[in-house]
Amino acid sequence: MTSGEITSVGTAGAAPEHVGGRGAWFKKLPVVHQVRQSVGLQRGMLVAGLVLTALFVLVAVLAPLLAPYGWSQLRDLDGAFGAQMPPSAEHWFGTTVGGYDVLSRVVWGARTALLVVLVAVLSSIVVGVLLGLVSGYFGGWLDRVLVVVADAIYAFPSLLLAILLAIVISGGQSSMWGGILAAALSITVVFVPQYFRVVRAEVVRIKAEAFVDSARVLGTGHWRIMTRHVLRNSTRTLPLIVTLNASEAILTLAGLGFLGFGIEPTAAAEWGYDLQRSLADVTSGIWWTALFPGLAIVLAAMGMTLMGESLNDLADPRLRSRARSGQVAGAVAATSVEADASDPENPASAEHRENPKGDDA
Amino acid sequence: MSAVAPNSAVASNGAVASIRDLAVSFATDAGPVRAVDGVSLDVQPGEVLAVVGESGSGKTVTAKTILGLLPETATTSGAVVLTGREGATTDVVNVSAAKLRQVRGRDVAMVFQEPSSVLNPVYTVGWQIAEGIRAHGDVSKKEARRRAIEVLGTVGIPDPEHRVDHYPHQFSGGQKQRIVIAMALVLGPSLIVADEPTTALDVTVQAEILDLLRHLRDETGTAIVLITHNMGVVADLADRVAVMYQGKVVEQAPVRDLFADPQADYTKALLKAVPRVGEGTARAVERAATRPDGWAESAPVVRAEGLTITYPGRFRQPAFTAVDGVDLAIRPGEVLGLVGESGSGKTTIARAIAGLTPVSGGSLQVLGTEMRGARGRDLKAMRPRLGFVFQDPATSFNPLLTIAECVAEPLVVHGRARNPEAARARVDQLLEAVQLPRSYGDRFPHELSGGQRQRASLARGLALDPELLIADEPTSALDVSVQARVLELFAELQKDLGFACLFVSHDLAVVDLLADRIAVLYRGHLVEEGTGEEVLGGPREDYTKQLLASLPLPDPEAQAAHREGLHALRGA
Predict the structure, then answer these.
(1) Which of A78, A270, A351, B481 has the fewest CB atoms within 10 Å distance of its CB?
(2) Is A329 an 8 Å CB contact of chain B?
(3) Does B313 or A103 have the greater pLDDT score?
């Protein structure tokens, strides 16, 4: 045995021609690119996360078509549904103690959850990124104050803060949008420090890079440096935080609902509220009222966490696993001299990487 | 398979390390890339084998294979057979992790490039040396300490009994590298792999470390594999040289033969590209002769008088004075080379002239603007008349903009063009001037090589036709052969466009190629200033003399004599 015990790890999924090659345009789309890039367990996690998340979004968007009844519907043409009915042909997931159809509540609940996640994540990105950019770029006393405030928010238990804000914002109202905005904005306040910190740290790093110095030497204005040079380079990690935060937002929303600070059942369906109402059912053997909303929370949160975690790992070259070739393979990459020596009259020569010795040295 | 290779054919030639048909490839996102392609080398006992080549040639990967230090993504074939002091042989490529751990340190050890990141800052150096001893056998703490002190003495750390208990930050950079060498040496390996051991060090410290390595080879008979890109270091230390290019060994020869009579085309080109002190002096004299009358009296573009720059101290520590009372002037169309070691304040001066670092004392006039106490608005008129070329071409471009957009940025900012598209004609012209194909304007910075990026950087610096260009170590991140071409281009452009230039570098030979006058900085003070002929031909100050003597010459014969000169200077 001369060539050593080299095992082939992973699948043949990452064919060498795809990345960096001239593949079809859709292969370069953000998520598609990552799926093709991944191998083995990482690919499994990513695909599972994507499927669960897609399912969640689809159910939320298509709720009016999928749900057999409305979220606050208590009776149909045949009369009242009846409370705590076990799963049957009319009510696949049974009915709750309040007489609502569980399946419909679960489906409509996805819509509420999605809206809250969208509003919460969007508003926290806008506020967090803007504050982080200004704070990191200018530094000084403003930076110090903002960092202290962010740290102080961190120090609060986030759910307690969300409860406080839900009360302040909604003021006891319980309309659908009122409830959604209250939940979303209270989650925003908890998340802003995260975006603020990540963006600020990146901005502080980017600010010291030579290309920013180079812009300063030119006399470029602060605003132009901030938007053109700094901001675009410091948002690379944001998509990953977004996916992770989205799952956290679902859990916070469910927590608020469970504690009774969420949305009234007549205004919109909400999983946390349903779980709380089913507390008493569990001890008396009525399993369906708690199981399905609980499962919905777990699957939605898990889908986004899986997606976020695997995107995070794929974005870091050190954590990314790659398909290993069984033997020494590949061509020697062209090194700088010859490529650099390419004559301007012959611009194509640097691209002939297979034959870099074609030039005179 | 047993760790002791039955491959006696390889082991019988007496080499301490024998590399046969080594090939290494890495799994990357763009598919496998081959880094080493069929390399065969032998290292004889007590020999210094230099492996030279530009970045990407596979020299470091080869060195790391000898210690089995390649990352998981690497696939290796071939054999690397090590022979320990007891004669046991091990094939590093095909051995278990446990066996490999035994071999490391005992049969082969490594000296890394950057001593400050190799030493763990929270343990004493004695502890770190002892850790290596205790990893290979049951040695008492006392005995390990005794041996640590002994080896520290061997590598020339003064007062080792006392300093063994010091922490890494209490040593200078050169001393830290000595300690790293001591760690490599403590188990008496038959082979030390030194990966660019002096690249991070100043030239005067480099000379000391090279002396130490030479001394160790002679005293202990340890073979050394020296990975370097510096032909001066090769000429100073190596017995035999292997030149690597694109993963292959293109030439292998004893050091004198290689320098006197290189065979491979690549080696010839490499040797030709190495800058030598004294090459530029004639050109500077020629330029000086063609200056018009009254030029010496014309108003300088930069005039510093008693220039002092301090960095405020933190936590009640006193402020640090980086530049202390420097007087200098750059007249129109003149290239001033600023030379100094790390920490001498040369970059600080360059940044102060560009308005990136505030001036704290004295006076600094740049293009008629007083920089001391100047605010953003005051500098507005001066900005477009000044260009800056940064040290690291990899970081001085915004990675999200194309080269054309980056080069157009000065034109857009100063209102010469409304947007990058409108500036494209001028950008193409500039790219042509720095000998880059126009089509490169549509590429992103990472798609260019280091030398190409530095040309683009030059194009950006010249976009506004500046009267003054500041170049801060523009070639120190480049390979020698690329550096030669960039310097040539720089000299041509300077001649054609006639801008004044402050050229900052740590390399006397590079500065000599371009500069009309050379200023030597040492710890924030201007030590000596004059034309290349004056400073390099007959240095007045001791520091300049030492700097010049420490610079290894890329020629083994001349370097041997040059080294004697340095020793005499130190002794005096």
Answers:
(1) A78
(2) yes
(3) A103
Mutate which of B34, B377, B398 to test chain A, going by most A C-beta atoms within 10 A? B398
- Tell me the percentage of chain B whose pLDDT exceeds 70: 97
Say if A250 falls within a structural domain: yes
pTM, entire model: 0.75
* Touching B: A residues 127-146, CB under 8 Å: none
Are residues A353 and A283 part of one domain? no
Task: Please calculate the CA angle B237-B239-B241 and round it to the nearest 5 degrees.
Answer: 95
Select the residue of A20, A324, A342 nearest B75 (Cβ to Cβ): A324
Spatial CA neighbour of B24 closest among A10, A355, A6: A6
Contact A330 B33 (CB under 8 A): yes
Convert A330-361 into a string of H (helix), E (strand) and C (coil): CEECCCHHHHHCCCCCCHHHHHCCCCHHHCCC
Based on the domain organization, do A105 and A227 belong to the same domain?
Answer: yes
Residue A37 within a domain: no
Instruction: Identify the closest residue of chain A to B434 by CA–CA distance.
Output: A344
The yes-or-no verdict on residue B394 having pLDDT over 90 is: no
Longest dimension (CA), chain B: 81
**Does residue A29 lie in a domain region?**
no
Amino acid at B411: L
User: Most B CBs within 10 Å: which of A316, A336, A359, A360, as the mutation test of the B interface?
Assistant: A336
Is the Cβ of A228 closer than 8 Å to some Cβ of chain B?
Answer: yes
Q: Which residues fall within 8 angstroms of residue A220, CB to CB, at 6 or more apart?
A: A229, B409, B413
Q: Inspect the interface and report whether the beta carbons of B481 and A361 lie closer than 8 Å.
A: yes
Do A200 and A337 belong together in one domain? Answer: no
Question: What per-residue confidence (pLDDT) applies to A187?
Answer: 81
C-alpha distance from A317 to closest chain B C-alpha (Å): 9
- Indicate which CATH number applies to the domain containing A118: 1.10.3720.10
Q: Is A332 in contact with B452 (Cβ distance < 8 A)?
A: no
- Cα–Cα dist B39/B25, whole Å: 13
The ipTM is 0.72
Domain membership of residue A42 (yes or no) is no
Count up the domains in chain A and report the number: 2
